[in-house]
Task: structure prediction
Amino acid sequence: MCGIFGYLGHQQALPILVEGLRRLEYRGYDSIGVAVDDGETIQTHKTVGKVSDLKSILPASIDGTLGIAHTRWATHGGVTQANAHPHASENGTVHLVHNGIIENFQQLRKSLSKRGVECKSETDSEVLAHMMALELEKGAEPLDAVLSTLRRLRGTWGLCIMFKELDMLVCARNGSPLIIGQGEGETFVSSDPHPLTAHTQRVVYLEDGDVAVIHRGSFNITSMKGHSVEPNITVLDEAWGEAELGDAPHYMYKEIHEQPDALRQCIAGRVDREMGTGRLGGMGLDHSTLIQAPHVRLLGCGTAAYAAQIGQMLIEKMGRIPAVTHISSEFRNNDTVINPKAIYLAVSQSGETADTISAIKEIKLKGGQVFGVVNVVGSTIARLCGKGVYIHSGPEQSVASTKAFTNMVAALTIFATQLGRTRHLSKDEGRELMQALQQTPHLMETYLEDIGPIDEAVSLLCEANSVLFLGRGLSATVAKEGALKLMELAYIPCLAYPAGEMKHGPIALLEEGSPVVVIAPNDHLKEKTMSALHEVKARGAKVILIHEQGDAIASEGDVSIAVPAVHPALTPLLTVLPLQLMAYYTAVRLGRDVDRPRNLAKSVTVE
Ligand code: F6R
Result:
């Protein structure tokens, strides 16, 4: 959620920290701050707002090669300058930035208060600076001051700490990602891999419980018990550096248009057309395990959960075994029964979503094996699962997920085909589907070259008090994804329903002119979906119809948007495109902050 960047090296720290923050800003963006050691003192500058707001209050330069920086998504305490990080101890010996939540901070705050130490902010993070400073006062070394503070905490942390007059940083991770980048005579710290690619490809992902002491160009890692930990160096994929906006007006626009190529990346080498099946080597599942699996459970949040729901339907259809999708935040608390022979799939773009991480841990604790369907290589979920499939969307910077959704769906389609081929799916059916999947990037391109009357749809949506999205089967889930996109970007209340369920309640919302988005690809459910369309039209609603090219139903919509015809199992990969564009252009027309919608963050690392 929040972003951390730290630097210790031979270059001026301030520009490096500000650039790191710029690349991290999509993680959280309500307030921002930086602290740089200028050799005499630690200069801190922080403000409510974004990187551009920080830049406007920064001095032209600060002469210093050591510093820490933070972009915040508020959890404890409002969006104020006082609550922005870095936080410092009263005597200024400790400055730190923190991601995560300290659950027992109230109790810690009270005991600090008893010792005469009052916090200046409402955050849970500030107490840590005071606690560490007290340990230093008692004569502890910096590492020991950090360790003894951490041992008193309950909660999660990604921490980067600097100390007055000490040429070092200390970092710690427990539940909030933190990565160390190793340069020549310089070391970087980041909560996200991609800002590091501008400086180095050699990184170390800290594990939960790790504490790292960083000096210029070198670092040591210890466990919470103080034992030395061998660093595991990973070489980052260069593609993660190519996340610049270029000529595109917004990241979301860029990422919508990257979908054909991203899909090509996702399916490359994973389709066996000869055998009519999929090849997901990273899952390491042999045929006998697939045959014996009693059921499949999928986990995710938001868009990832919708991709999982589409995967679930395809798994049942092709694999003929029960499949169910769980919203990760519910899963952990519902004490769900785990069958260790079942297949569990955790779906996540960031690979850092705390709710999904908790659910995975719960399944593992009960003996189940979880496979990741993840975008960010080396992310917590990818490492926690150990096996799985990378969806290869490349960096997704806009808060609203687009190209990750289509690649999650594609990866799950390949998995469903692989599972189906070990059971009831014939070679011919498998071949037909895999061949159609390989043609889908081209069909996406065809649509994106001529997006149809999106502008007319946007004119209806901009005026709406609420919007209803309807579809059946796979399209019922596409409807949910379309509603989520429009709601999060344009701040218009949106409701998505399976078309058949509409008459059981939501129809009451309809009045003259209410926009209703109907997704009706040419599948076996289209006729039934059209009945719902007629019911909404009879109540004076304005229908925005998403249909397949050449279909006579085009005349039924007040605004009709055609997508290329495709295999019925793959329709979500095309019907979602106009929904993404409608959300994007509505948000633009309403003057919303498209890439950074209010209150949201890209990577939701708190439960
Ligand atoms: C919606 C969106 C969110 C994420 C959700 C899960 O556009 O982006 O709903 O899909 O927070 O995130 P990941 O996929 O990173 O686990």
User: Anything to note?
Assistant: The CA atoms of residues 197 and 241 lie 5 Å apart.
